[in-house]
Amino acid sequence: DLKGKVESRLLSMWNNMKFGWTVKLKTNFSKESPVWLLGRCYHRKLSPSGSLESSTEIATEATVNDVVEQIYGEGIEGFKSDFISRIWMTYRREFPTMAGSSFTTDCGWGCMLRSGQMMLAQALVCHFLGRSWRWSPDKAIQNAREFQEDCLHRMIIKWFGDKSSVNSPFSIHQMV
Questions:
Q1: Which DSSP category does 93 fall into?
Q2: What is the pLDDT of residue 23?
Q3: Which of 81, 94, 100, 152 is 20 to 30 A from 13 in CA distance terms?
Q4: What pLDDT does residue 136 have?
């Protein structure tokens, strides 16, 4: 078992070097351009306002100015809130070994599985909680609806836990 752990760590280090992190220091992004995230548009010029649904519900008799305000109304704070509400699956290490292997990491080979897990997690969040749902880790739960939403969010995350368990049907252990 020690041999398997050593092999797994060496493989992980090799993959980190081989598929290493390359950072481009200079970007070509314009601070004046809107940012799109999963069909929602956010713009830093405008301050947050209104409900989260406003960007998707545009009345047929709305003026051009109404449409622009509704689309851009959430501002950059809305983008940040939306961004942190997405469930992220990344390479992991030191998880329980998978049946028939000595792997305790998915570094270097798990990218497609993690991408698939993220898409499935996003679909489940949209299905159970809606596209406008936001995770607010610093906000206290104030009513039964928020408690139920928090429980659903936690349950979805558990479904992707890296262990072989009936409580984690979408874990890497179940998928491989």
A1: B
A2: 60
A3: 100
A4: 92
Predicted confidence (pLDDT) at residue 170 exceeds the cutoff of 60: yes
Contacts of 33 (CB under 8 A, 6+ apart): none
Q: Position of tokens 């009513």?
A: 143
Cβ-Cβ contacts under 8 Å for 31 (sequence gap 6 or more): 44
Instruction: State both tokens at 62.
Output: 């709305």
User: pTM above 0.90?
Assistant: no
Chain centre to alpha carbon of residue 133: 13
List Cα–Cα distances, 119 to 20, 63, 112, in angstroms.
Answer: 24, 35, 11
Structure tokens at 51: 């409900």
In this predicted structure, what is the pLDDT of residue 148?
96
- Domain spans in the chain, listed from the N-terminal domain onward: 28-84, 88-176
Show the CA angle centred on residue 75, arms to residues 70 and 80, nearest 5°: 125
Label residue 68 left, alpha or beta by phi (over 0 means left) and psi (-120 to 50 means alpha).
alpha
Strands 40-42 and 35-37: antiparallel
CA–CA separation, 19 vs 108, rounded Å?
A: 7
pLDDT in tens, 10-62: 877 777 766 666 666 677 778 788 889 999 998 876 444 444 333 443 344 55
> Rounded to an integer, what distance in angstroms lies between the CA atom of residue 132 and that of residue 141?
17
